[in-house]
């Protein structure tokens, strides 16, 4: 995975970036609020802390993805912020930062979740046809029409049935239409 410069704060990690102890991400609203897991392994930093970090300063976001076959990609965005709890920890994501057209297209699929409030199985803010967090097993900024184009807090692939036509688990549909082995999200103050 490629990091340009330093100063990154990892806000979520899944898979091999940690020590590979499996942490389930199908958690309650309060667990996502305060965070869970271990910082040296799989974890969610906590929506309240992420909100504070992303509203004190303007931040950029990098998301690192690794497929089961070892392919990897790093996607960067020029802005990342989540609102406070009273607004549902709503996602505000900026434009992809890439000079490579295909990478920009892949990164753009996360923008389908822009302005979505965070949902968990016990607090559905998706505004759609289903409680997406309950249906797919994890908290996320779900799209009101399709639930997700990107879902990085899903159950690990060894906990879900693999289906080629509609993969479940940790996915980024516009990059690999399959469950992913490892992902991490990190932010840093823009310079």
From TrEMBL:
InterPro entries: Fibrinogen-like_C, Fibrinogen_a/b/g_C_1, Fibrinogen_a/b/g_C_dom, Fibrinogen_C-term_domain
Domain of life: Eukaryota
Single GO cellular component term: extracellular space
Fibrinogen C-terminal domain sequence ranges: 1-191
Record Pfam families: Fibrinogen_C
Protein name: Techylectin-5B-like protein
Species of origin: Leptotrombidium deliense
Organism placement in taxonomy: Eukaryota, Metazoa, Ecdysozoa, Arthropoda, Chelicerata
């Amino acid at each position: 995975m490629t990091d340009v410069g330093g100063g990154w704060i990892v806000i979520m990690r899944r898979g091999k970036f940690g020590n590979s102890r499996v942490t389930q991400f199908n958690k309650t609203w309060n667990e996502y609020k305060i965070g869970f897991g271990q910082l040296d392994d799989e974890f969610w930093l906590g929506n309240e802390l992420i909100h504070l970090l992303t509203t004190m300063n303007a931040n950029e976001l990098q998301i690192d993805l690794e497929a089961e076959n070892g392919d990897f990609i790093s996607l960067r965005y020029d802005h990342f912020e989540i609102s406070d709890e009273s607004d549902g920890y709503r996602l505000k994501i900026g434009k992809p930062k890439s000079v490579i057209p295909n990478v920009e297209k892949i990164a753009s699929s996360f923008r389908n979740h822009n302005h979505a409030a965070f949902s968990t199985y016990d607090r559905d803010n998706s505004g759609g046809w289903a409680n997406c967090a309950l249906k797919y097993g994890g908290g996320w900024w779900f799209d009101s029409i399709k639930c997700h184009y990107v879902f990085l807090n899903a159950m690990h692939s060894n906990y879900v049935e693999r289906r080629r036509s509609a993969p479940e688990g940790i996915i980024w549909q516009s990059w690999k239409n399959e469950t992913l082995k490892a992902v991490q999200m990190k932010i840093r103050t823009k310079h």
